[in-house]
Design brief:
The protein has about 270 residues and is of the alpha+beta class. About 20% of the residues lie in helices and about 25% in strands. It binds 2-oxoglutaric acid (AKG) and fe (ii) ion.
Length: about 270
């Protein structure tokens, strides 16, 4: 990360990277997503299912999407934040429309007693074991809705008082609390957050446009969630992943660095 990115990520808990995707990357990914949206259930690639608002394992629908897990703009940042021990563990594609009328309440990792999710700084290096990269394929404008974040909240030490920021959670026209920021990425932008950051999602207001983005989640390679170490992608998804993506999704001990991590630019073997 540049000194400016490092300062801003530490201060606010997120980064908004503009124009990350080339026109070609954007065109290919948008076309792949459109194919998914148009697909009937039995046309969906195996291991991908349509959920409430998107596609589980949607990253594996097309190589143009899978390649984003190791995109040259985000890869150095993912490595740096995980102290060179990254593990990719989830990749859902979201298509958020006006039809969903309730907001996603503010939330974050590490609320309550689950202290396993971390954010900290040591020897000038930021560390977090829960990183999310949101790749956007459509534009978000102020007033549209979508992601809201509470900058700086990844360093909170106290529980958030309920209803402090949304006294009227069911009123989509209520003014946004001044401490919250509505992030408005454009197609081709990326937002990187630590999941320790308090965030939520406002109702999507446009009726003629949706919000399409990919959620790529990374932990450390030795992080175990409450269910322990387990395969996160079903075998039919694993099967079609490139060896580099499989390596990225692999668990590993704390003292070992993956060969992949030694590379600054990773090209997927097709
Ligand atoms: O819809 C969004 O922008 C954020 C979704 C979310 O909270 C998450 O993926 O952790
Ligand atoms: Fe979240």
């Amino acid at each position: 990360m540049t000194p400016k990115q490092k300062y801003l990520f530490d201060l606010r808990g997120y980064l908004h990277l503009e124009n990350v995707l080339t026109p070609e990357e954007l065109g290919n990914t948008q076309a792949a997503i459109e194919r998914l949206v148009q697909a009937t259930p039995d046309e969906l690639p195996s291991g991908i299912s349509r959920g409430g608002e998107g596609f589980s394992n949607g990253f594996s629908a097309d190589k143009s999407l899978e390649a984003l897990t190791l995109h040259p703009a985000t890869w150095p940042i993912i490595k740096e934040l995980t102290w060179n021990k990254p593990r990719f563990n989830r990749g859902s594609l979201v298509v958020n429309t006006h039809e969903r009328q309730e907001m996603t309440p503010l939330h974050c990792a590490g609320e309550g007693f689950r202290w396993t999710r971390r954010y900290g700084v040591r020897d000038d290096q930021i560390f977090t074991n829960d990183v999310v990269a949101f790749f956007y394929f459509t534009d978000v404008y102020p007033g549209d809705g979508g992601l809201v974040v509470l900058p700086g909240s990844h360093k909170r030490e106290f529980a958030r008082p309920e209803n402090l920021f949304f006294p009227e959670p069911n009123n989509p026209d209520a003014p946004l609390h001044p401490a919250l920021v509505n992030v408005t990425p454009k197609a081709g932008d990326v937002v990187i957050i630590t999941e320790l950051l308090t965030h939520g999602v406002l109702v999507w207001k446009p009726t003629d446009r949706d919000r399409r983005f990919l959620i790529l989640r990374y932990k450390t390679q030795f992080f175990q969630d409450e269910r322990g170490i387990r395969e996160v992608f079903p075998p039919e998804v694993m099967e079609r992943l490139s060896p580099e993506t499989k390596a990225l999704a692999a668990y590993g001990p704390e003292w070992e660095e993956k060969d992949l991590v030694k590379q600054d630019k990773v090209i997927l073997t097709l």
